[in-house]
Design goal:
Number of helices: 9
Number of strands: 9
Keywords: ATP-binding, Nucleotide-binding, Transport
CATH superfamily: P-loop containing nucleotide triphosphate hydrolases
GO molecular function, one term: ATP binding
Protein name: ABC transporter ATP-binding protein
Radius of gyration: 17 Å
Structural class: alpha/beta
Order of helices and strands: EEEHEHEHHHEHEHEEHH
Domain ABC transporter: 2-227
Helix content: 25-40%
Oligomer: single chain
Strand content: 25-35%
Shape: globular
CATH topology: Rossmann fold
Family: Belongs to the ABC transporter superfamily.
Amino acid sequence: MIEVSRLSKRYGAKTAVDDVSFTVRPGTVTGFLGPNGAGKSTTLRVLLGLDHPTSGTALIDGRPYRDLSHPLRKVGALLDGAGPVPERRAIDHLTWIAQSNRIPRSRVREVLDLVGLGDAAKQRVKKYSLGMGQRLGIAAALLGDPEILVLDEPVNGLDPDGIRWVRTFLREFAASGRTVLLSSHLMAEMAETADEAVVIAQGRIVARGSIEEITEGHASLETAFFALTGGQVGW
């Protein structure tokens, strides 16, 4: 389970995240929605131990990420903008991650095949398309066969078949009793994938609940999103 409680993060005089609280339960895909600059990435970075909170907590099974004994086996993560060394081959990139986390090398081939990169395993990452790079990022997140996935814009650059695969995979992953926190700006896709949603605007939570609850009284998740956020871009 992911538990974010009274979380705030300030950078100098700017408040990126302001008293944010929400829970992501096992067995669900939870969408984390907000305009660009609303505080989504900052929240995820604090959750994954990449930034320190100004106040409050972001815990994974009751513990900070940095205190997890085997983090890659507990949490698989894909953050927008994170990527491997372009000159490195995909298989070497994943092998390095596996070895540093005491994961069997056989798992590297498993995840490459799983995300559809088996035939491109020995290509250098700089030759990958944007969609192939996203598939490689998802493969890295899956290396430890984690209980929790935290994914930031995982379908960015994917073709329709790739998007459908991600949707199906995440729903099956959650149906097995595991946990998914999914950040995306594609409302139609989120409506198809997520069970629950947390909406953030200008650093504060403006709505949370099931997709049905969020969209009640609105024609779609997209119209609900714009009504809740006012179409504004905050920190």
